[in-house]
Amino acid sequence: LFARSASSFPHHRATLRLSEKFILLLILSAFITLCFGAFFFLPDNSKHKRFDFGLEDVLIPHIDSEKEARHSSRQVIHEESLRDKIRADHERALQEAKEKLRKSKEELKAEIQTEKTKVVEDLKKKDGPKPLPPVPMPKLVGVKDGDPGDPDTKEKRDKIREMMKHAWDSYRQYGWGHNELKPIAKKGHSTNIFGNSQMGATIVDALDTLYIMGLHDEFKDGQEWIKQNLDFSVNAEVSVFEVNIRFIGGLLAAYYLSGQEVFKVKAVQLAEKLLPAFNTPTGIPWAMVNLKSGVGRNWGWASAGSSILAEFGTLHMEFVHLTYLTGNPAYYQKVMHIRKLLAKMDRPNGLYPNYLNPRTGRWGQHHTSVGGLGDSFYEYLLKAWLMSDKTDTEARKTYDDAIEAIERHLIRKSNGGLTFIGEWKNGHLERKMGHLTCFAGGMFALGADGSPDDKAGHYLQLGAEIAHTCHESYDRTG
């Protein structure tokens, strides 16, 4: 049936195929339209994502390389500009620093000159220490002004002069030019306090005594040796304290007594050699100094590398005179600085310990003694006041305060009724008195002049009691 029907309608079969093709074509067209519509009408982010996927591997490296190149170029330019700026700032800062340094040096020089002028003016003021003019040939009692009326006094005086001449002649024969004489061995000797050098310490030390005693021939011999042989350029390490009191003191005394210029010249030369000893952080001088190199140090046995009170505190009489004689304020300033530094420091019980570290400015061992290690510090305070015609009130007050503390904490009586000056050590009083303390009897008596009226008699009596104790100590020990 089917076969017959199909063969019976050939025209209809052809029509059906055309319709099917047309339908398929429509479907295909619709599909193509749908695809193109989807392609063109998708949201922007999908479209952009589609392009990104296709171009990111090509565009991004290219873009980044351009950015990096531009950034690198800008960085190079920036670095070069920064270097130029730093260089310019550095040069400007350097120039400013040089200018400031130049101004600082000029200002410093001006300040130093102003300070020097001020010190010299202060020295000339009536209320300051007064200079002691040299006396060329003074008329000294006992030399040319007649003999004492009392025969016993004259006999004693002549005997003392005889002993002095005997000692001088023996030194002249066996130890000439050496610092000391060994009397038994009969040969010269030079001690370590003068650097084992032959500086004629005995000659310089004896000049004023020779002159006062009227031994002028001997005095002239000593003067000639000093003029020809005394040399301070030797490579010798000397005690600043000993050289000051024996050499500078001896030379200045000889100059004031005789007026001979050579003594003044030598004293100033030596003082210049001692000045490097003051080059410490505090201005407290070293105990020793090399006269040639200027290098200083302290005694190895001193507490914690300290300087000694009796040594650095026994300089200002001579150094003040050096300023008087030369007009150079350096000497005066060095020693007055020591006094002012001590005044600012705390003192245990008002006492001055014997040790002071020149680097740190701190006390060493708290050991106070009016004898060895401390003695002449107190003596020089009183004598500085007297030397200034009693105008150096600072020295007098320092002396009075020190003596008051000594009397309160150190002066005691023994079980036998003898007055003595003990030593304060490690927080307690040691009930002993060394023989070097015996000078204090005369010091208390000398200091009575200038004490308050109600104290003058007291200090005279105290001095007499200490002198009596010293007499007894020698008498009882044979």
UniProtKB/TrEMBL annotation:
EC number(s) reported in the record: 3.2.1.-
Enzyme class: hydrolase
Positions of transmembrane segments: 22-42
Swiss-Prot/TrEMBL keywords: Calcium, Coiled coil, Disulfide bond, Glycoprotein, Glycosidase, Golgi apparatus, Hydrolase, Membrane, Metal-binding, Signal-anchor, Transmembrane, Transmembrane helix
Disordered, as annotated region: 123-155
UniProt name for this protein: alpha-1,2-Mannosidase
UniProt xrefs under SUPFAM superfamilies: Seven-hairpin glycosidases
Compartments, record wording: Golgi apparatus membrane
Catalytic activity from the UniProt record: N(4)-(alpha-D-Man-(1->2)-alpha-D-Man-(1->2)-alpha-D-Man-(1->3)-[alpha-D-Man-(1->3)-[alpha-D-Man-(1->2)-alpha-D-Man-(1->6)]-alpha-D-Man-(1->6)]-beta-D-Man-(1->4)-beta-D-GlcNAc-(1->4)-beta-D-GlcNAc)-L-asparaginyl-[protein] (N-glucan mannose isomer 8A1,2,3B1,3) + 3 H2O = N(4)-(alpha-D-Man-(1->3)-[alpha-D-Man-(1->3)-[alpha-D-Man-(1->6)]-alpha-D-Man-(1->6)]-beta-D-Man-(1->4)-beta-D-GlcNAc-(1->4)-beta-D-GlcNAc)-L-asparaginyl-[protein] (N-glucan mannose isomer 5A1,2) + 3 beta-D-mannose; N(4)-(alpha-D-Man-(1->2)-alpha-D-Man-(1->2)-alpha-D-Man-(1->3)-[alpha-D-Man-(1->2)-alpha-D-Man-(1->3)-[alpha-D-Man-(1->2)-alpha-D-Man-(1->6)]-alpha-D-Man-(1->6)]-beta-D-Man-(1->4)-beta-D-GlcNAc-(1->4)-beta-D-GlcNAc)-L-asparaginyl-[protein] (N-glucan mannose isomer 9A1,2,3B1,2,3) + 4 H2O = N(4)-(alpha-D-Man-(1->3)-[alpha-D-Man-(1->3)-[alpha-D-Man-(1->6)]-alpha-D-Man-(1->6)]-beta-D-Man-(1->4)-beta-D-GlcNAc-(1->4)-beta-D-GlcNAc)-L-asparaginyl-[protein] (N-glucan mannose isomer 5A1,2) + 4 beta-D-mannose
